[in-house]
């Protein structure tokens, strides 16, 4: 569901004494990001120069920040993601459908990966399933017990001992409403949470030193992150709803196992995606969600990406048709500009002399401003606004005229502007839509030849023109009308043909009939008669 990509409005975290954050030693990326551990922006310092380790429990802002870090700041992001393929919900669903938990888990895993692919989300370096790492989880729990921070009960459960870490617990108190994890009667403290749960009848289980059972919820992430990154993690990301108790418990377990004072240096939490006018996040349990498959029936992946870029990652974001149309309009503005620039560069669009020095200056200022915006806690709305300003300045220079009178042209500066725009958006805003592009190209070329034939001038008594001016062949006028009819009938289908004197341009709008979304384009020169 879409809510899996945006994790209610960002709640302020309460400061808790006794949990001092230490500035990491290492490489300063030049970025300041809001760290939920300190409740303020901090310089993003990674352990190794040019490399950042990142772990996430569910697909969230890490996909966006990963692109920004790698493409613009030269940081290689090693991103690992855990796949929870065994838990209470999966077991319950398997009973209801009379299939194995593995079948349920693989079905949803496959759907999730297909959805991410359809949204053009860069996958992590590795997906790690819980069921394939249970032996590591058991060893991790044994280490926590050995270090004196967990205990086994006579019932066969293992709990983390909150009191054993003193006042170090509670970094994310206030992030969400506090909740006590349910458990058996043998818990020493109501806050203690399960590391290992004894198996119940008909439940999957693994053998362990404490008897047959399966991992608790939180331990899987600590174990798998440690298997990949060791005792030090640069960035841990996730939705704000996971801050407490999940991320809080991850910190407690990991620092207890590694016997360190600061396991993850930065926690980046994203806001929720919710329906406009509702305070509730999109949720299957509340039945107020839209699936990605259904979403893509109305909007494109690039439109969704623009929708996300127009909001701060830490803020809640309203999903509505109005907001999606705003994203579509922003993308269409960029796409149309790219189309016009390419027509200009090919000599198909004639314009007055361009203020070339002015555009070079605007481009340089845009690059600097966007880097500053993204270095300030990944401020994508400010960056997009700056980019649209560059498009505005470019459009001001692209004023079509019927003849250029041999004026000097400036294709290079426009080429630089378009190259920068497509690179910064990490998408070809004039990308192809399958083999349809070739079909439209041939159709438009044939239409252009017919139109050129129909427009061929004729000077004789039967001409439709005025004295001294060439007119049209009367018998060819139906051909010209047929060309116009074809153009008009293709437009509602998402194929837009524009006649510019001796030139025709075409655009394909991405998606369903009648949508005006992302475009691809080309220009067709009508053959000389």
Automatic annotation (TrEMBL):
Major enzyme class: ligase
GO cellular component: mitochondrion
EC code: 6.1.1.16
Job of this protein: In addition to its role as an aminoacyl-tRNA synthetase, has also cysteine persulfide synthase activity. Produces reactive persulfide species such as cysteine persulfide (CysSSH) from substrate cysteine and mediate direct incorporation of CysSSH into proteins during translations, resulting in protein persulfides and polysulfides. CysSSHs behave as potent antioxidants and cellular protectants.
Ligase is among the record's keywords: yes
Keywords: Aminoacyl-tRNA synthetase, ATP-binding, Ligase, Metal-binding, Mitochondrion, Nucleotide-binding, Protein biosynthesis, Zinc
Cellular localization per UniProt: Mitochondrion
Entries under InterPro entries matching the protein: Cys-tRNA-ligase (IPR015803), Cys-tRNA/MSH_ligase (IPR024909), Rossmann-like_a/b/a_fold (IPR014729), tRNA-synt_1_cat_dom (IPR032678), tRNAsynth_Ia_anticodon-bd (IPR009080)
Biased composition, class Basic and acidic residues, residue ranges: 520-529
Pfam hit, one: tRNA-synt_1e
Cofactor (UniProt): Zn(2+)
GO MF annotation list: ATP binding; cysteine-tRNA ligase activity; metal ion binding
Family: Belongs to the class-I aminoacyl-tRNA synthetase family.
Record field: catalytic activity: tRNA(Cys) + L-cysteine + ATP = L-cysteinyl-tRNA(Cys) + AMP + diphosphate; S-disulfanyl-L-cysteine + tRNA(Cys) + ATP = (S)-disulfanyl-L-cysteinyl-tRNA(Cys) + AMP + diphosphate; S-sulfanyl-L-cysteine + tRNA(Cys) + ATP = (S)-sulfanyl-L-cysteinyl-tRNA(Cys) + AMP + diphosphate; S-sulfanyl-L-cysteine + L-cysteine = S-disulfanyl-L-cysteine + L-alanine
Annotated stretches, region: Disordered: 510-529
UniProt domain tRNA synthetases class I catalytic: residue ranges: 67-328
Identification of the protein by name: Probable cysteine--tRNA ligase, mitochondrial
UniProt-listed GO biological process terms: cysteinyl-tRNA aminoacylation
Primary site of residence: mitochondrion
Highest taxon of source: Eukaryota
